[in-house]
Design goal:
Distance between the termini: 53 Å
Mean pLDDT: 91
Shape: elongated
Radius of gyration: 28 Å
Strand content: 15-25%
Helix content: 40-55%
Strand order of the largest sheet: 7-19-10-6-9-8
Structural class: alpha/beta
Length: 517
């Protein structure tokens, strides 16, 4: 029988536990025993144990004293306290000393076995059960992908794929990777077939998109008399939301909505559409002073506050609002300090650029490329930023306002790219790797989505014969000159602008503070 783990059982009446020890040995555990705290400390110094069962009431060193010394020597050693006492202060002291579990005597063998499974084998058990569940659902998910033919179908597919990607152990990742590739190809075909229909039939069956968010989510909350904080995390994906969600559950109830980013899935287009309630072509026509074409040198999102103002004016709404753009920890801290002065406003709009900056730095920095090697590490570093930066304190402070609702959303997501395709273009063509805007664009891949009439897609015509082309799957555009150099440089980087579920299907989260309840 394979050894499942090595245990140390500390009890001054250890001879009375002989039957329990035999039971554990029969299950595959090695069990060492001592009768006092001093011997337990010495045993842990000489040997490596996976878990310690520790009696609380012993002659000499008490269980709590022994526990503290064991934790001083090895903070990560799991210790299960076993005691006759049910006194609350004893339990609190033990829990405060970071015990793994707490058992009340008399214990039966199955109780002990359960705590061992929870503390020594939980991860393996969860992985095995999840992997088996995925294998059982593999065929049904494949059928769901094959039959998806509406925008809502694809939202359901993306939710399922994200769930499995977050839950699955590495052993089943290859199966999921293949299924994701199949879904990605089918989604790209779906968008190429339906996107222009969405643009031409705005009152038909099309998804919620960036330009609908104020009308469908912000205005109803304001009409209900609520104070609204709209926090736009630039370049934020649904899986990243799922990763940080547990950090907010102590003080918020959350509701998820998934909607679609417009094309291109880039800040210049998607975020201006979000704040104006208009498609980019409409912005250029109605407010040319607030729109910059691809060939213009200035920043493309300099007029977001002005666009919000035009949105309220068009709908003849009176609204006191603020707009802030936060680029780093100092900006976030300063904004948090200003909360008392901005609470008088009906709406406070905040753009947080940290994730987008992190994504771009991953391309430019060798260290960041090592830290963010894949999708999993990208989610992990997002959680680490959220947990350890001032952004979490900002959400804690906002949770103290019972009459406020917080909306978290984004302008678009991003995708890790890995296949370079050649493109020929003139010097005025846009520089983005997942889409290009220009004239006389040369490309050979059949997977490229080309829009030759920009107005059909609600996009600005930027000169005679303007085309927009979009990469699909994990492709990215590289010019023919120095193709190999740039293809290698950008391979496995996180990009946006094109067509993928990760870029286009994006979250809007409604947070209701638990203080309201």
């Amino acid at each position: 029988m394979n050894k499942l783990g090595t245990l140390l059982w500390v009890d001054d009446e250890i001879e009375m536990l002989h039957a329990h020890i035999l039971f554990l040995q029969s299950k595959g555990y090695q069990v060492d025993t001592v009768t006092n705290g001093t011997d337990a400390i010495e045993a842990c110094r000489k040997n490596v144990y996976d878990l310690v069962l520790l009696d609380e009431n012993m002659i000499g060193l008490s269980g709590l004293q022994t526990l503290n010394r064991l934790k001083d020597a090895d903070p990560n050693l799991p210790v299960v306290m076993v005691t006759k006492s049910e006194e609350e202060d004893i339990m609190e002291q033990a829990i405060g000393s970071r015990i793994a579990d707490y058992l009340i005597k008399p214990v039966n063998p199955n109780q002990i076995l359960l705590t061992l499974k929870k503390n020594l084998h939980r991860r393996n058990i969860e992985n095995n059960v999840t992997t088996e569940s995925y294998r059982e659902n593999f065929m049904s998910l494949g059928m769901q992908i094959d039959s998806a033919n509406t925008w809502s179908d694809w939202i359901d597919v993306y939710r399922q794929l994200t769930r499995w990607e977050l839950d699955l152990d590495i052993s089943a990742k290859d199966m999921l990777k293949g299924q994701k590739e199949s879904a990605s190809n089918s989604f790209s075909r779906f968008i190429r077939k339906n996107y222009l229909n969405w643009m031409s039939d705005t009152d038909g069956d099309r998804p919620i998109m960036n330009n609908d968010i104020f009308k469908k989510f912000v205005f109803p909350l304001l009409d209900d008399g609520q104070r609204v904080y709209l926090i736009v995390l630039d370049n934020f994906r649904y899986d990243q939301w799922r990763e940080i969600n547990p950090l907010l559950t102590d003080f918020y109830i959350s509701k998820e909505t998934l909607y679609y980013s417009i094309l291109p899935t880039a800040t210049h287009y998607a975020r201006n559409a979000l704040f104006s309630g208009l498609m980019p072509a409409q912005i250029k026509k109605m407010f040319p002073q607030y729109w910059l074409d691809e060939c213009d040198d200035d920043g493309k999102n300099l007029y977001e506050e002005d666009l919000i103002r035009t949105l309220f004016e068009r709908y003849r709404r009176q609204c006191r609002f603020t707009y802030r753009k936060l680029n780093d920890a100092c900006d976030i801290e300063h904004y948090t300090q200003q909360l008392p002065s901005i609470r008088q406003n009906n709406l406070n709009v905040t753009v947080v650029n940290s994730i987008d900056i992190m994504s771009h730095s991953r391309t430019d920095s060798k260290m960041m490329r090592e830290l963010v090697a894949d999708e999993s590490s990208y989610r992990g570093i997002t959680r680490s930023w959220f947990e350890h930066s001032p952004i979490l304190e900002l959400f804690r402070q906002l949770a103290q306002e019972p009459d406020s609702t917080i909306l978290i959303t984004t302008d678009h997501g991003s995708l890790q790219v890995n296949r370079a395709i050649k493109i020929a273009a003139d010097r005025n063509t846009s520089s983005n790797l997942r889409y290009k805007c220009g004239k006389s664009l040369g490309f050979g891949s059949k997977d490229v989505f080309c829009i030759s009439n920009p107005e059909q897609a609600g996009l600005p015509d930027q000169g005679i014969a303007t085309q927009y082309i979009f990469a699909t799957g994990t492709d990215y555009f590289v010019y023919q000159n120095n193709f190999n150099t740039f293809a290698g440089f950008y391979k496995d980087s996180f990009q946006h602008g094109g067509i993928s579920m990760e870029e286009m299907i994006i979250p809007l989260i409604t947070l209701t503070t638990k203080n309201r309840l």
